[in-house]
Amino acid sequence: MDFEFAAALYYNYFNYKEELLTTKRVKHSDICKLINGLDNNIFQISKQGESYCGREINLVNAGTGEKKIFVWSQMHGDESTATMAIFDIFNFLGRRDGFDSVRKKIFDNASLYFLPMVNPDGAEQFRRGNYLDIDINRDAIRMQTPEGKILRETFDIIDADFGFNLHDQNIRYTSGNSHKNAAISFLAPLFDSKGTINTTRGNAIKLISGLTSILNSYIPGHIARYEEDYEPRSFGDTFQGLGTSTILIESGGWKGDREKQFIRKLNFILLLSSINSIIDNDYEKESFDLYNNLPFNKESLYDLILRNLSIKREDKISIIDIGINNKEEIDETTGNTNMISRIEEIGDLSNFYGHEEYNLDGYYIEPNKGRLKIGDKPEIMIKKDEQLKYTFENGDLTHSSLQ
Length: 403
Ligand SMILES: [Zn+2]
Known about the structure:
This protein is an alpha/beta fold. The chain has two domains: 3-299, Zn peptidases (Aminopeptidase, 3-Layer(aba) Sandwich), CATH 3.40.630.10; 301-399, Urease, subunit C, domain 1, CATH 2.30.40. It is built from ten helices and 18 strands. β12 (316-330) and β13 (337-347) form a beta hairpin. α1 (3-12) packs antiparallel against α9 (261-280) and α7 packs across α9. The longest helix is centred in the C-terminal third of the chain and has 20 residues, at 261-280. The protein starts with a helix and ends with a strand. The structure holds zinc ion. Zinc ion binds next to loops.
């Protein structure tokens, strides 16, 4: 892998970041505007079809070389991180600067095909499914969604050497049994239930090993492997079985990065490093080891954990931890998105981690409304020696003093 190239991308990323995309709520109208503005000396745009609600799904092609690389994103409407990175890559490819020799190498040796935002109707609502709320990534066999059909037809036309299947995963996954977010998770999807490794899948595994070695310089410990289950209804598994070395990249969480802008930058580096490695065939030098040694995703992270609180009910005292998460919820009347805190778990959370944690040993809790309940907003008072130490209202922890 070319570590110098990856470092140059890391430190020069700001030059290519598409400034019109600033939050994860990327809409179809945003990307249409950007696609229409692409330089047609470099990019060929072809309409592949329309979504259920008639939104155009466009394929963007650059380069005329032998190595064919197919990149598709946002098959799940609320998973937009890679879509943002794809437009950063378009900016990179369209620029003239110190990277010109790399660009020439890419355009001469590769044919890049991008299908950004496979699910524009889902993106409009910022939800997973398509207009009928069908999960497009479970439609690779039955083919009942126009979006799934477009993805499959595009795949068949390109007949790519490598495919990049780009998603977002639960931001609360950690990398194995650690407290570190799984910022990026990989999978070389299985094409049978035995997990057979043939040349196609082997090449995907080798490239992931190479990408892991690159990420180890920037986010050590924050890399994981997605669960290895064969899912014949999904497109990644299907495409791997059809002979395109397919790599699943899942953008996860990063502390303080609600809009996924840091992970977007990682996607930019990963995809351009992959293209470079595929052209040079240097992924072939990688072993399976880094891939095989990646810890699996594990869901064990909360935004906040209050630990070792006492709660007294009917003369019984129990010691509890409380796991609290901030969640985006849509206000049905205004349509606005609000960040709301919810109690997610009550009890022993000793094998879980919190982005923020308080050890409240010796403190006791009084729920404002009499009882504590999962799913409620945390409205609680935390006391010690009859004195109020913390109040928790509508998700804000205000402390009188910490002792
Ligand atoms: Zn997904």
